[in-house]
Write a structure and sequence with these properties.
The chain has 73 residues and is mainly alpha-helical. It is built from 5 helices and 2 strands; from the N terminus they run βααααβα.
């Protein structure tokens, strides 16, 4: 199963830049960039809570899951 980041879509829909989200969430821009690009291997729940709160979404909306066969289609 693969984890897919929805952060970029949410940021785009809310017209937020990395700098905007960093300022609102108090999460480092490089952490936001890694989360957005799916390059983040681990993340504290507190960080996800900050991002979700800043974006006014539930934590579960930040990421979605896809089965491997869904990715090859």
């Amino acid at each position: 199963m693969s984890i897919i980041s929805n952060l970029g879509i949410i940021m785009k829909n809310k017209k937020l830049t990395y700098e905007d989200l960093q300022h609102i969430s108090q999460v480092a821009p490089d952490t936001i960039a890694r989360a957005k690009d799916g390059r983040i291997a681990t993340c504290k729940l507190a960080t996800l809570e900050k991002l979700a709160s800043a974006l006014d979404v539930d934590i579960c909306q930040l990421f979605s899951y896809a089965k491997e066969e869904d990715l090859s289609s």
